[in-house]
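Sequence dictates fold. Below is an illustrative record:

_____
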Amino acid sequence: MIYGERIRLRSITRTDLPLFVEWLNDPEVTHGLVHYLPFSLEDEENWFENMLKMPREEHPLMIDIRSEQGWEAIGDCAVFNIDWRIRQAEFGIVIGAKHHWNKGYGTEALSLTIQHCFETLNLNRVYLRVYENNPRAQRAYEKAGMSIEGRMRQAHYDNGKYVDVILMSILRSEWQENK
């Protein structure tokens, strides 16, 4: 497990799947995600089986916070599309437990994942894509040290209109300077 000040990142288990179904069927949660169709438990079980066949470094991690009952799952994050020659990977995150939005957990999860990417996986660049109509996520990414590096115009369709996709990244050298 990877521990931060208030969170931990751990492997996803089959028992977590009902939470994903709940989160991914909530339009407020999926607003900033590529997912736009309803998910069933069977869909999630198929995703889980396929995920287990992926390289271990690309397995998503559950984001847990401490609660009175122990640990509470609030979302997940992942690095994927790892290119070992260029030493880069893409990052994705969702905080599915809406009552924990705007508390800095996403920023902490991103910071822990960036540290993992640079110190454990020996990557040089971590990047992500964020929709222009998701300023909350953009602020979290900037707090974690990421910079805007480009824009894909009208590359996403959301709620009847096209929106830009903003590309953000952080390099190992930038992370080391800010550490």
